Amino acid sequence: MTGAGACGIEGLHLPGPMGRTRIQGVNIMVSAVFKKSVFSAVPLTILALGLPIGLTMPAAADEVLATVNGKQIMASELKFANEELKSQLGNIPLKQQKGLLTKYLIDRALIVAAAKAEKVDASSDFAGRMAYYQDRAYRDAYFSKVMAVSDEEVKSFYDKQIKLVPPREEIRARHILVKSEDEAKALVKTLEGGKDFAELAKEKSIGPSKVRGGDLGYFAKGDMVPEFYDAADKLKKGGLSAPLKTKFGWHVIKLEDRRMSKPPALAAVSDQLRKLLKRQKAEVLIRKLRKDAKIEIAGQEKAKDAKKAEDKKAEDAKAAPEAKKAE
Question: What is the rounded end-to-end Cα distance, in angstroms, of the chain?
Fold first, then answer.
């Protein structure tokens, strides 16, 4: 368990220069520049369009996965089903995803057959719906082509970002959180008598970190409320603090270790950075297409003209008293 996330559970953690991001079900620490990049502002149009910027399933040989009333379901269809359902798949392992997506394609084939039997294509809006989904298919195919990101691009971006993140000192500490000063003083006496800190934390602490023996992991200046960090930072390795009061209660702190921070490994953030680079490419493309296009939004020009008329009317009304004074 690394520091910032653990501290956040206790309520001690501040929104500091380190952030925690979940990558494929594993918690890793990512530096500020990565957090800022990954969650930086992306035009709403790009996100709202649901562009295929996420991870894709490995290409599979086009083999028959199943047959439904004589209709074959091919392995190549998994890619498209994955793009459609990726937000619902979450961190499900790829091996399980294949089975779930195959079941989805089987159910879809059954529904399509039933729809054809009901002649739903004769309905008034069917042609419009088909045209809409065809345009979406064009969009998805085009973005998949132009937003491809190579391993070299990911590595280059990673190297540039790493240079922007200087190492900083981190400390690792445990703490026991109690409600009163008297309780904290009693804890100090017990610990000075030789009681194991981790065991005592499990017995007495009222903070969630009690299950880890009070371990808060590694954290740096700015990650914690100031008084807590300052008290921990003053300690020598293995040292105990005097009872410390914060808005969360009374603490007894033990310093476990000090180290200089290291950036996350490329392998740990490569998928995250690849998605970011795809979003950046999408943003650039959308802006270029908008710039080169003639776009007219119905009613917008009328609204502009009405606004100008209102502004002129307000200016005239404001100028009238001044004109009378001049007379």
Answer: 80
Give the number of domains in the chain: 1
Distinct helix (H) and strand (E) counts, the chain: 12, 8
Domain that holds residue 62: 54-146
Give the whole-angstrom CA distance, residue 321 versus residue 62: 80
Given the DSSP bridges, would you call strands 169-178 and 71-74 parallel, antiparallel or unpaired?
unpaired
Distances (CA, A) of 49 to 52, 56, 177, 246: 9, 17, 47, 46
Q: How crowded is residue 261: how many other Cβ atoms within 10 Å of its Cβ?
A: 17
Element (H, E) at 30: strand 26-31
Residue 171 dihedral angles phi and psi, to the nearest 5° = -120, 155
Q: Is residue 170 part of a domain?
A: no
pLDDT tens-digit readout, 58-103: 545 679 999 999 999 998 998 888 888 888 887 888 788 888 999 9
- What is the C-alpha separation between 4 and 269, in angstroms, rounded? 18
Q: What is the pTM of this model?
A: 0.52
Cα distances from 1 to residues 28, 192, 208, in angstroms, run 9, 27, 13
